[in-house]
Amino acid sequence: MIEIRNCDDYEAARELIREYSQIKGAESCFVSLDRELADLPSYYEGGTLLLGYEDGKAIATIAIKRTDAPWAEAKRLYIKPEYRGRGYARKMLNAMLDKCRELNYDEVRFTTKPEVMSIGYSLYKKMGFEELGNNEGTVLMRMFL
What we know:
Largest sheet: 7 strands, mixed
Mean pLDDT: 91
CATH class: Alpha Beta
Oligomer: single chain
């Protein structure tokens, strides 16, 4: 069973984000990776970074980045491969949506690459996220809260 909490181990978060950045085809999602990893608390200030744990081990991440727009930007949904297929992505997404509501956002947006992350993309659609646009295979999605 996954336990989701605010990030309390930034080194574990860095490791998960680095692992995620190595997925073939996802490279363009990490344009400011070095800056992000250098200071995770500042990078997600005004938002949050959540970690998912199983048996005390960090195995998942998702983040909310504050924007100057009236919506939150969701980022970094990642589940370690050996923990996939257990419904953890849906639980991480729901925890992120709850946090967005706590932070008084009315909308959350994110980008994804359906060609690279087809299972995640299908989950987003099932959960009610809608497409706003597609720019060369990168899809912008949103959900009103």
